[in-house]
Amino acid sequence: MNLPNKLTMFRIILIPVFLLLLAVPWEMGNVMVLGTMIPVAQILAAIVFIIAALTDFLDGQIARKQHLVTNFGKFADPLADKMIVMTAFIMLVGIGSNNVAAWIAAIIVCRELAVTGLRLIIVQNDGEVVAAAWSGKIKTFFEMISIIILLLNNVFFANFDIPVGQICLYIALIAAVYSGIEYFVKNRKVFADSF
């Protein structure tokens, strides 16, 4: 297994760590950061998520520069992204974050499942793994940024009274819907025999 694929697998391993930090009622208390109280578990979860996001950036860079692009990487890399992003949004709703409405998380999760299903059909029919489009990469970027900022209670922007986390979340939502439609329009031939 090459280094980019190892980084992808490491990102998948980080998912249960991230999940446990937010799901288990740890008695870690809160910390004041730049005048904002943040639960320690959320800070640790944000650090784990940042590490996962960095591995996402690194594995793609290394794979392209060293010509280590593989079908496993094209499949597992976006799958790892979807898994950690869906986990994060569900957990943000679950911990009662007022910044993430359940309907937003539901749309993002439904989009991720639909696109993953489409990719699996294409692989089964054509043997071709569909690489992530630019719109999907933009979606992933804004999802990851919004999750980090929301986990940290918008701490770096609290003094400006600008809900940067929510703004990034809505950009991610729009990009999710757009890129989902784009995937289905570009690959509509998959369903040609159904109509």
TrEMBL record:
Q: In which pathway does it act?
A: Phospholipid metabolism; phosphatidylglycerol biosynthesis; phosphatidylglycerol from CDP-diacylglycerol: step 1/2; Lipid metabolism
Q: Any idea what job this protein has?
A: This protein catalyzes the committed step to the synthesis of the acidic phospholipids.
Q: Which InterPro entries match?
A: CDP-alcohol_PTase-I, CDP-OH_P_trans, CDP-OH_PTrfase_TM_dom, CDP_ALCOHOL_P_TRANSF_CS, Phosphatidylglycerol_P_synth
Q: What species does this protein belong to?
A: Fructilactobacillus lindneri DSM 20690 = JCM 11027
Q: Which GO terms describe its cellular component?
A: plasma membrane
Example GO BP? phosphatidylglycerol biosynthetic process
Just give the chief location class: membrane
Q: If you read the UniProt record, what top EC class would you report for this enzyme, in one word?
A: transferase
Cellular localization per UniProt: Cell membrane
How is it placed in the membrane, per its record? Multi-pass membrane protein
For the keyword Signal, the answer is no
Instruction: Report what the protein is called.
Output: CDP-diacylglycerol--glycerol-3-phosphate 3-phosphatidyltransferase
Keyword annotations from UniProtKB, A to Z: Cell membrane, Lipid biosynthesis, Lipid metabolism, Membrane, Phospholipid biosynthesis, Phospholipid metabolism, Transferase, Transmembrane, Transmembrane helix
Family label = Belongs to the CDP-alcohol phosphatidyltransferase class-I family.
Mark the transmembrane ranges: 7-26, 32-58, 141-158, 164-185
Catalytic activity entry: a CDP-1,2-diacyl-sn-glycerol + sn-glycerol 3-phosphate = a 1,2-diacyl-sn-glycero-3-phospho-(1'-sn-glycero-3'-phosphate) + CMP + H(+)
- Which NCBIfam families would you find in this protein's record? pgsA
EC number from the UniProt entry: 2.7.8.5
Molecular functions (GO terms): CDP-diacylglycerol-glycerol-3-phosphate 3-phosphatidyltransferase activity
